[in-house]
Amino acid sequence: MTPQAPTPPDPAPLVVVVEDDAAMRAAIDSLLRSVGIETRLFASGAALLEGPMPAGAGCLVADVLMPGMTGLELQARLAEQGCIVPIVFVTGYADVPMAVRAVQAGALDMLVKPFRDQELLDVVQRALARHETRLQTEREMTALRARQASLTPREQEVMGLVAEGLMNKQIAARLGVAEVTVKMHRAAMLRKMSARSVVELVRMAATLERGEP
After folding, report:
1. Range of 201's domain?
2. For residues 118-155, b (16+ Cβ closer than 10 Å) or e, as one string?
3. Cα(58)–Cα(130) distance, rounded to whole angstroms?
């Protein structure tokens, strides 16, 4: 028997750091790498926006008050591009309106310099976990939509009626077909949707209708 190749290890988490202060940028880089987190470093928001967000990025750590493009302006530009990577702001000076604006726009947190190493590590880990959860949710929705798309138009009709709580006989009357035909469509639909029960199918239908789990 041919031995199976070992499963490759999961890639290290990746954090993008945007900081104009070279010493601070290096310190954040060293701290994150010390706990096994890969980094991509940029001296400005404009430099980051010259290309796509680095593949695998799960968190963005950005200074707020940078020359040229501020961190908040970078946040707005990334939002326009549909970027979903959680943002953690760091700043030497923060007031309440600035913090409120950042969080309302989707930032996870704002740390005021000088912050403790553990503070940054904790919030970065929260950001990475949140991003992975969101990606997993998107993967599940994509798979569910693909299963729904594999149904024939008639199977989709049957799915909708089953989700409404109708029995096979009622569905047959609604569609004007024989009950045995409904049973065939129902069996095929449950198999394609990978639904182990009608209850699970109803949950799937509700998820598809909402557009989120």
Report:
1. 150-210
2. eebeebbeebbebbeeeeeeeeebeebeebbeebeebb
3. 9
Which H or E element spans position 89?
Answer: strand 87-91
Residue 8 resides in a domain:
no
pLDDT in tens, the chain (213 residues): 444 544 444 566 899 999 999 999 999 999 999 999 999 999 999 999 999 999 889 999 999 989 889 999 999 999 999 888 999 999 887 676 777 777 777 788 888 888 999 999 999 999 999 988 888 888 899 999 999 999 999 999 999 999 888 999 999 999 999 999 999 999 999 999 999 988 999 899 988 888 766
CA distance 85 to 185: 42
Q: What is the pTM of this model?
A: 0.72
CATH label of the domain that carries residue 192 = 1.10.10.10
Contacts of 21 (CB under 8 A, 6+ apart): 63
Residues 26 and 51 grouped into a single domain: yes
- The type of residue at 21 is D
Domain boundary among 109, 138, 167: 138
Does a structural domain hold residue 188?
Answer: yes
Q: What domain count does the chain have?
A: 2
Of 138, 160, 177, the domain-final residue: 138
